[in-house]
Amino acid sequence: MDHVPTRDETLGSRPAAETSLSGAVVDHLVRHRGPVLAIYAVLSIGAIVTIGPPDRPAVLWWLVGLTVVTCAGAEARVRRLLIDWVPVLVIAAGYDTVRSEAADLLTRAIVHPQLRFDEFLFGGTAPTVTLQRWLHAGMGVHWWDYLAWLGYLSHFVVTLAFAAFFYFVNRERFRRFAMLVVTVSVAGFVTYFIIPAVPPWLASRQGALPHTTRVEYEVWSHLGLPAIAKIFNGGTQLANPVAALPSLHAAWPLMVLLFIWPTARRGRWVFLGYLVFMTAVLVYGAEHYVSDILLGWAYVLIVFWAWNHYWARRDRASGGTLVAAS
Known about the structure:
This protein is mostly helical. It has helices at 7-12, 21-31, 33-51, 56-71, 77-84, 86-100, 102-105, 112-121, 127-134, 143-153, 155-169, 171-194, 200-205, 215-222, 226-231, 248-260, 267-284, 290-318.
């Protein structure tokens, strides 16, 4: 197994290239944090006065900016923790920004290209329709529906759990992992704006696809939680019905798998099984077409290659000993 630097080794030796432009910006911010904070406050107040009270996405982006301004380059433990985990806030802000535009995006959301791709690939019938017929989706809630429900929800836990593990074991690996996940997520958010796409369950409601059931909605309803079920019934207050292409639910597990593959000799096979399971859950639950999943995987491969190529060049140039994403 390749040597994995300890936390102390990682914190104590940053590549010189990393301290060039970005390091100069952070150093300047640290030296002038007071005036920068004052300017940020004045601009914030001015925006509220001229534009009006901010909506939720604007508040989230404001928090991203505030975290960077107050915590970048700080030595205090709490502020270092906040700046290290700002990528989570960036993802939340990006998702909510797209969600806030979902009502308008629905008017131009594509329906047929991804559906026709799946039908072509699977002999004329989308696999979501086939799986739901085989497993009697919508005809009562079965035990496997609960399994699919748990699998879908695991998206919001598993990747963050890996990030937390890397954070406490090797800070440099955490930073690289966070950059990978943020990059592929932002690429997805941008795509949702450019090419909003309808998922299978919504295509069924529009009559473009034979009847399918959104399994997540059925399970939440069966649990007697109508307020949560409402989120999965097509509303845009908390959910985004056009965030289908690419599938980030499929992209994140593949990113984790690629990241741990060089060092997790046994665990990688377990996680490969999880990736297959998540794929089946997304298709069966009518959350994504296979085409959505394949595009999500394509984004991951491109992002993973690009960042690792950059890190390898940077490490060679600086004489660093860290192995890119391994």
